[in-house]
Amino acid sequence: MAALSDQLLVVAILGYLLAMIGHAAEYAFGTRSVVGRAAIRPARELALVGAGGGGGSEPVVGTKLDAADVVAPAGAEPGFGAVGPGFGAAGPASGADGPKLTRALLAGRIAAALTVIAAVVHLGVVVTRGVAAERMPWGNMYEYLLTVTLVGVVGWLWLLYRRPALRHLGLFVTLAMVLLLAVAGLVLYVPIVPLVPALDSYWFVVHVATIATSSGILLLGAVPAVMYLIRNGYDQGKRSFPYTLGARVPAAASLERLTFRLHAFAFPIFTFAVMAGAVWAEAAWGRYWGWDPKEIWAFISWVVYAGYLHARATPSVKRPVATWIAVLGFLTMQMNLYGVNIFFEGLHSYGGLD
Amino acid sequence: MPAVDGQAEATEVENPPGDEAPTPPRVRRTPAPVALLRNSWRQLTSMRTALILLFLLAVAAIPGSVLPQRNINIENVNAYQAEHPDLFPVLDRIGGFDVYASPWFSAIYVLLFTSLVGCIVPRLLDHVRALRTAPPAAPKRLDRLPQHAVLTDHDGDLAAIAAMLRRRRWRVAVRDDTVSAEKGFLKETGNLLFHLSLIGVLVGIGLGSWYGWHGNRLLVAGQDNAFCNTLQQYSESRLGHRVDGSDLPPFCLELTDFKARFLSTGQPASFRAETMVAEGDRAPYRASFSVNDPLRLNDGASVYLLGHGYAPIIRYTDRSGEVQVSDEAFLTIDGNLTSEGVAIFPDVNLDPVTGARNPQLQVAFEGLYLPTAPDAPPYARSEYPAERSPAVMLFAYRGNLGMDAGISGSVYRLDQRQVDNGKLTRLGEGKLLRPGEKWTLDDGTTVEFLGTRQYITLSVRYDPGERVVLVSSVVLLAGLMLSLFGRRRRVWFRVGSAPGETSTTERSSLVEVGGLPRAEYSGFSDEFDKLVAATRPGGARQVGATEEGTD
Ligand code: HEM
Predict the structure, then answer these.
(1) Which of B119, B3, B104, B98 is nearest to B50 (CA)?
(2) Is residue B91 within 8 Å of residue B97, measured between CB atoms?
(3) How far from A14 is each of A2, A17, A126, B131, B497, CA to CA, in Å?
(4) Which helix (H) or strand (E) is A97 found in, with range?
(5) Domain residues of chain B, as ranges?
(6) Each residue of A73-90: b (16+ CB within 10 Å) or e?
(7) Residue (of B449, B439, B444, B395) closest to B419 by Cα position
């Protein structure tokens, strides 16, 4: 079972890699597609986001969500809410763009399908690992990262299902998956060992499951956050490297809203996870909070994300600034995941790296 | 207050007059110092300041993860001091080794919480006021609202509409020809609860640091090693500011057995400490505890298992045949429980006549205990943490142990200075003893390894703030979710007379409906549609619904 788990990991990475290539192809074929055109009409972008595919072949689930999302003051500008052609290649391949668009669409769909397959294999990696170890597969950094990335990809697929228009972010999601799983497999890999008594607790399951879930969603949330910053820069006329990517991603406002949604969803879970950790720490170490390096960085992340939510609720803080805070929060989470396990000595030294 | 309000409410779309507190008209000039104070207060309680303080708090927490902290690991702090003799005093002066108790860290959170109170109290008052005010009157033009629908074919019964809304837990006000309804106050309630509970958490932490205490010690198995809860019994302890030694609850603890199970790889699988507890007037009772499963005493304190190891039992027989036994704990130095320690016999080889100590004839043994000794030398490392083939490597010393000098020596190490200055000399090479084996020294005295006792390291803790923190945390989470996922929204129904041609019955009228979400709320159009549909049992035919309604 352990060997199977390791082999499945390779398959999963390959799957994500192929999906990434598919997304890249969609990107390449999709020149001046509806995506590009959507960018030229910023005034209507809000309406476009939501209007998904009026009669398009993509599932229309969730499009309603978006349209209503937009809270407009009484007397919204004309054209608000108009049913426009979908963007993000969601609409039917209209004649003008012809075969190019169809090919892009096909590549994108194949990429999405590959992501689903890779995610199923990924799930298999985690499950077989757990079965082989006869416990929840969260005993060390390798297993933990496998779980976090799984949550991230499942969240991504759910998003994709709800909003096909976001498919262009898939390139970045799959890229992140390939990189993270490669790091997991090459750097963090440890053979299966049972849990040490210190980890043998119900709270372990509750704490780690929720931390992994929230980390996965926050990981996912960083994708639209970064893309928003890029897109926003692009919209402001920046044309140097990362901003050039902005030409083909969804509209800034919808990326920003998605960023907020994901963070607002993950933040309470993260809060709960930290609390569950505190309850567990009380039972294991006699104090619910002791400024252990892992705890310090969880505190920092929590405060930074709280800062993000504040900043976003404060109109005097510009949205890009708020989004930068979210990105900063993401960096602190990464610091906690890798940095603390590797650099600092603490009670949470379960990484399995010596 | 207006400053805060203006910012905090701005995610909402509209502030109809009469809902929020009106800005009080300025009549008199305020004297400069008062104005300054008021402005500073406004600054402090603005969201911008809260943001900056939050950010500072995050930054200020970082050094604590980089530098060793006194309250966590004093040895690491001392090691740091030895390594960086120049840097240490500088960092120490600015609180680098007590970050979370340092003046600057405290200053940040005190300011943050002041800001919080200043922010939350006016909002609380506003919220209470809002809860007691009727939903605002309908705007003139309902068709300008984000959600709008017109029902013909309705009987125009406002009371029925109001009842329907009330059933759906809207707050309703009926005025002339309109029904105003509002829902979603839980969002703000949640927000306030969340911020108030932060204060609760802080109070709980404060209680813990004032009235809590803890002590750590090592406990060797056996009745004669039992300890009772007094300050002197702890090797390390900390009392809260409002606690002194006499406040410690009386209880005694004896380790009767310690069970450790290991996997074949040597990784620990489970631990359990069996103890005898005597508390207050109760008869002594058996209790066991483990990692993750502390012993909860009745007075509120808990006993935690932190570690374990072996204490070799070493018997020394001196020149006059007197026998003494040492069962001091040996400290473990690796995962296979190789342990180092000493057995010290200061009161041996006494003068047969006077009974006085002879400082030349004190005896001590430095030892390395191996629960699973290798089959052949070198006997330097244990091969497995359980006692499969236990053996102790002893090095004998004779001379002046230096214990009369008044310096309290470590019970785990010999006084190296005595060895260096030649007052304490080592007797030949070390000797490996298996249980029951005896070693006769050059002067005919003997040392015998009898076996081992288990010991545990434990921590006894009491924190009266824990419950407050826990309850506050639960409220915090509930408030946070309400605040993040709650949605305040309003709807208005207005009855007008129906245009003749669309009316099918005589009593039908035209009902216009408008809806306004006061925060981002993606599901509002659905909810609005359902409300409109529910306005009449059979569902109403809609005329002229806005685009949102049709997509
Ligand atoms: C201890 C530090 C604080 C933390 C951890 C914290 C955390 C949060 C969080 C996570 C939210 C998001 C919930 C939501 O979006 O409704 C929030 C909202 C809010 N906070 Fe704080 N906060 C703190 C201090 C403050 C202070 C000092 C103020 C006042 C200046 C304040 C005013 C607000 C307001 C007005 C909102 C609601 C924003 C809205 O209208 O949606 N908070 N806070």
Answers:
(1) B119
(2) yes
(3) 19, 5, 16, 57, 68
(4) none
(5) 45-123, 135-184+487-535, 309-459
(6) ebebeeebbebbbbbbbb
(7) B395
How far apart CA A227 and CA B481 sit, in angstroms, is 27
DSSP 8-state assignment for residue B98? S
Report CA-CA distances (Å) from B354 to B294, B349, B351, B445: 50, 12, 6, 20
How many Å apart are CA A274 and CA A280, to the nearest integer? 10
Quote the pTM value.
0.80
**Cα separation values, B330 from B184, B243, B383, B396, B408, Å:** 64, 33, 17, 16, 18
| Structural domain contains residue A12 | no
**Rounded to the nearest 5°, which phi and psi values hold at B432?**
-90, 125
Q: At what angle do helices A319-334 and A252-285 cross, to 10 degrees?
A: 40
What distance in Å separates the CA atoms of residue A2 and residue A130, rounded to the nearest whole number?
Answer: 9
- Distance (Å, whole) CA B130 – CA B117: 19
The contacts of residue A304 (CB under 8 Å, 6+ apart) are A325, A328, A329, A332, B54, B55, B58
- Tell me if A77 is assigned to some domain: no
Q: Which residue of A has its CA nearest to B52?
A: A307
Amino acid at B506: E
What is the value of ipTM here, to two decimals?
0.83
- The side-by-side arrangement of strands in the sheet containing B285-289 is B227-228, B251-262, B268-279, B285-289
> Nearest Cα to B347, choosing from B339, B356, B338?
B356
Mean pLDDT of B173-178: 89
Judge contact between A88 and A189, C-beta under 8 A: no
Q: Which of B205, B74, B198, B182 is nearest to B136 (CA)?
A: B182
d(CA A330, CA A282): 27
Question: Is A352 or B215 the better-scoring residue by pLDDT?
Answer: B215
Ligand 1 pocket, CB under 6 A? A 306, 309-310, 313; B 8, 11, 45, 47, 50, 54, 112, 115-116, 119, 191, 195, 198, 483-484
Task: State the alpha helices, DSSP H only, in A184-292.
Answer: 202-235, 241-244, 252-285
- At B177-204, the pLDDT tens digits run 899 999 999 999 999 999 999 999 999 9
Per residue in B154-185, is it b (16+ CB within 10 Å) or e — as a string?
bebebeebbebbeeeebbbbbeebbbbbbbbe
Look up residue B224 and give its amino acid. D
How far is the CA of A219 from the CAs of A148, A351, B222, in angstroms?
A: 8, 20, 53
Cβ-based neighbour number of residue B16 at 10 Å: 14
Q: Is the pLDDT of residue A56 over 70?
A: no
Topology of domain B135-184+487-535 in CATH is TATA-Binding Protein (3.30.310)
CA distance B405 to B402: 6
Query: Is position A354 within any domain?
Result: no
Shortest Cα distance, chain A CAs vs residue B309, angstroms: 15
- Cβ of A65 under 8 Å from any chain B Cβ? yes
B400 in Cβ contact with B360 (< 8 Å): yes
A190–B contact, CB cutoff 8 A: no
Domain that holds residue A322: 109-343
Name the residue among B13, B64, B214 with its Cβ closest to that of A71.
B13
Amino acid at B497: S
Residue B355 confidence (pLDDT): 81
Neighboring chain B residues of A54 at a CB cutoff of 8 Å: 551
* A64/B546 touch (CB, cutoff 8 Å), yes or no: no
Q: How far is A34 from B417, CA to CA, in rounded Å?
A: 83
Tokens representing B485 are 């996922």
pLDDT tens per residue across span A61-102: 333 333 333 333 333 333 333 333 333 333 343 444 456 667
How many domains would you assign to chain A? 1
Residue A31, in any domain of the structure: no
